[in-house]
Write a structure and sequence with these properties.
The protein is α+β, with helices and mostly antiparallel strands. The protein has helices at 15-29, 66-80, 121-130, 143-148; strands at residues 2-10, 32-36, 40-42, 53-62, 94-100, 105-106, 111-112, 156-158. Helix 1 (15-29) packs across helix 2 (66-80). The chain starts with a strand and ends with a strand.
Amino acid sequence: MNTAILLIGGNLGDRTGNLQKAVQLIAETAGEVVQTSALYQTAPWGAVDQPDYLNQGVEIRTSLDALTLLHTLLEIERKIGRIRQEKWGSRVIDIDLIFFNDSIHSLPDLKVPHPRMHLRQFVLVPLMEIIPDYMHPVLHKTVKELAASCPDTLPANRYQA
């Protein structure tokens, strides 16, 4: 079995419901959901003129290989209503594959570990909750160490519905 670390998020529609639906579909089609973080609300990163995001870290165990998992996650996004229009634009759901075991993949469609995860608090804060001691296979730092040195100043605050 493989261990995959995901970050799910969205800022359109029923944000909480969309994240819950994503976790449900991940469990049904991608693998066993081992643990999830709390929900975190963050200001948009990149294109800033849009609603705040909710984000959540998810750890799964899967029999799928990394590329098949990525395609499965993209299909889940489509089922929930994701339409890809602009980079860093608003979205109903986004599911990023952050880590896959301790492997490194650099393919046109698949970059693992996620190449910018260490630069974003909205990724690191939820992951700190579920995998603080997970070692980044390229940077050779734990999630906790990456969070402590992250240059991103946008806060990720625990969401209270």
